[in-house]
Amino acid sequence: MPSIDLVSEIARGEARTALVFADGRALSYADLDRLTLQFAARLGQAEKQLVAISAQSSEHAVVAYLASLRAGHAVAMLPPCDERLWDEFVATFEPDFTYRQKMAAGASSGRLGLREMRSRCTQTSHCSS
Description:
Blueprint: H1 6-11, E1 17-20, E2 26-28, H2 29-43, E3 50-54, H3 59-70, E4 74-78, H4 83-93, E5 97-101, E6 112-116
Parallel strand pairs: 3-4, 3-5
Antiparallel strand pairs: 1-2, 5-6
Helix pairs in contact: 2-3
């Protein structure tokens, strides 16, 4: 089976479909290229950093993951609603960035946003059950 360099594939920026989500929305390679470049620029590329990402099945988590790799950073994908694991991971490894679902109190869904934190990271969201 041939090996695929995913970042190079995305960087080609073609109009063909790269991702299809459960709600039917699709992202092209060109869209994915643009979004990952924007996100990677926010992370910076000066030195390798540790990025912890909530492993949600969402466009935002995929973009965060691919952008982190594109920027040359180490990525840890963590379960989205295991607070104990997140707390232990943050205390042990002190990631430079965390990316988790941000939800309003009592909401069943919410908007995702990048939480950039240097040094010690803190809890950035709450998951609903």
